[in-house]
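Why do we care about 3D structure at all? Because function follows from shape, and shape follows, mostly, from sequence. That is the central idea of this module. The next example makes it concrete: a single protein chain, its amino acid sequence, and then its structure expressed as tokens.
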Amino acid sequence: MFLNINAQEYEGIIKGDKEITFNGMVISASGYTIGNLFLSYGHYFSDKLVLGIAPGITISEDMTEISGQLYGNYNFSSSKPSFPYIKASYYQSSFDTEDVDFFDLGFIQAGIGYKSFFNDKVSWDTSVTYGLSTASFDSGMLMLMTGISIKW
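And the structure:
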């Protein structure tokens, strides 16, 4: 269970707030491990809508790739210290397009998330998205991301 603050202690989100999120995931299967780390920057264009960019790095035993996301989240609340949101994003798994078309390495994603504030500025943020490959739209990717978010 996550600790969170009482609603009367939480100032809420307002238009113009910004946030930085440190999040990532690790996948390990059949002796192969891969991890993604992201540093996201988001700007609240309203008290419920945040748009942002998330450069990242993907690390495995045999490669290191630069990746990135453009995303938008719609929060179902802006005045409660814990709330769900929906998310849409474009995820580029690599910018190394030497042998492939740029968009062959991309995914269009949609999903849900949950944010729970520890205090007025710091929250735990977890999201699950499912994305379809822009190369063929017949292969998908499920992503579970979790991390710490700081707003100001």
